[in-house]
What does this fold into?
Amino acid sequence: MKLKVKFWLKLSLLNLCIVALLGVLMRYKIGFEFLYFEQINLQHSHSHFAFSGWISHTLMTLMVFYLQTKIVDFNGGKYRKYIIANLICSYGMLFFFIIEGYGFISILFSTASLVVSYVFGYQFIKDLKLLDNDLCSKNWFKAAIFFNIISSIGTYYLGYIMATKSILQDLYLSSVYYYLHFQYNGWFFFASMGLFLGFLNIKKSDHPFFATAFKLFTIACFPVYFLSLLWLDLPMWLYLITVIGALVQVITWFKLLLVVLKTHKNILMNLAPLLKTILVFISFALSIKLVLQLGSTVPYISQLAFGFRPIVIAYLHLVLLAIISLFIIFYSIANHLFVSTKKMKIGIILFLIGVILNETALAIQGVASFSYTSIPNINYILFAIAIVLFLGIGITTYYSLKKGKNYPPL
It folds into this structure.
């Protein structure tokens, strides 16, 4: 029995619409008077649902899809119960974080979602054994599952200190950044890389650097966590290891780009124009992200970056929107998992424009905050951009759900 991937991906887009709507609501509360809902509760609901209901749900679905394309008579339908369980937890967090913030029920759903991820990961690792060891994706998926599991350590501690209200600032921030790091740079990144390498059908035997790149990124992922903690007084040896880790990731990424272009250029060049544009943009955004990480190893720059909220928000959205979310859309369309129409193309372009505008506005606000300069009407501008993002994904979702002729990839 096959997993009905297209059905679950349609639900993914609806979930992204909810994430975007919460973003609009939060931006509205900042720019205008709106007494209903606590801003911090909306923020917790927005982030938890984005991670679980949008990104994790979709990555799980696409990873099962990959197995179905590679393994003859694979029973992808057995993952249906895990996907449903994850969605129940996601919607529980969506509503109860709004209602009570970090309360008993919201923490219960959050903890349950971690248990679901463990069970899913255990089953997926077992099924990965059925794949050819020469496929590059296999190891990237294993690492993705591993990082997803260890990221939960930060969540457990964060839930504990929020529930007991025994908050020590340094430990609180360390646990938040720990969870975010191994989600963004671990689970999200490695799963997306596994899907991308699988899309190109890249094998270790295609080029020796493919296996090397995986090892380097995996090893570097651990010390790079401390980039988020440079504001603490880290010992010199740990600081040096962190710098080396950031440098290794930058060098490995650009080398990997060159090798992929050299070995699989024909596939990439034959992509539809919009898909090619999205992929180039994602590569550019990821390059910027890794270079910025390396730049943050300079203590003064690190203090500025983590000392101003707009910079942190810009970085998080760079990864979540410009890299991971756009990659998911790219991958789904390239594999004909969405109904591809000309009107849907409008929504995707609008969403892409919104992502660019959002990052630009946040970057300007962040740089201006270094000198404590206020950007006129920035809250209204960000609210307008949030609407653009919502409209873009809303149009995309509407035409993905609407029945119609399926055109070639955009």
About this structure: DSSP finds 13 helices and no strands in the chain. The mean pLDDT is 90.
